Amino acid sequence: MYLLLLLLLLLLLLLLLLLLLLLLLSLLLLLLLRRRRLSPSSPLSLPLLQLQLQLPLLPSMPPLAELLALLLLRVLADAACV
Predict the structure, then answer these.
(1) What pLDDT, on the 0 to 100 scale, is given for residue 59?
(2) Structural domain boundaries enclosing 23
(3) Are 51 and 44 spatial neighbours (Cβ–Cβ below 8 Å)?
(4) pLDDT of 55
(5) How far is it, in rounded angstroms, from Cα 69 to Cα 61?
(6) 51: in domain
(7) Domains in the chain: how many in total?
(8) What is the dihedral of CA 27, 28, 32, 33, to 10 degrees?
(9) Contact assessment for residue 12 and residue 72, using Cβ atoms and an 8 Å cutoff
(10) How far apart are CA 18 and CA 74, in angstroms?
(11) Domain membership flag for residue 39
(12) The pTM is what?
């Protein structure tokens, strides 16, 4: 019985680590796509900390990548609330 509970706890921990990894990958994807689309003369080409403060990140992203990143973030947020 205890072995089953320990196995279940280990499985839940592994799932949590996987969700965290997916969240980090999706945020990295958003940042990389945003950084790639900026031109050097753009007023938005700021250091990374200031780039995170810019709210309109999505208009310069390709539509498919934007939708995939938003969908992944939504799934991860819903999974974290459960």
Answers:
(1) 55
(2) 1-28+57-82
(3) yes
(4) 46
(5) 10
(6) no
(7) 1
(8) -40
(9) no
(10) 15
(11) no
(12) 0.42
Q: Read off the pLDDT of each residue in 31-36 and give the average, rounded to a whole number.
A: 74
22 CB-contact burial (10 Å; exposed 0-12 / middle 13-18 / buried 19+): middle
3-state secondary structure of 82: coil
Number of Cβ within 10 Å of residue 58's Cβ equals: 15
Distance CA(61)–CA(82), nearest Å, equals 30
Indicate whether 65 belongs to any domain.
yes
Number of residues that this document lists for the chain: 82
Residue 68 has pLDDT above 70, yes or no: yes
Which has more confidence, 37 or 7? 7
Alpha helices in the chain (DSSP H): 2-37, 48-53, 63-81
Average pLDDT for the chain: 71
Which token pair is 62? 């390709």
Q: Report d(CA 13, CA 8) in Å as an integer.
A: 9
Residue 53 pLDDT class (50, 70, 90 cuts): very low
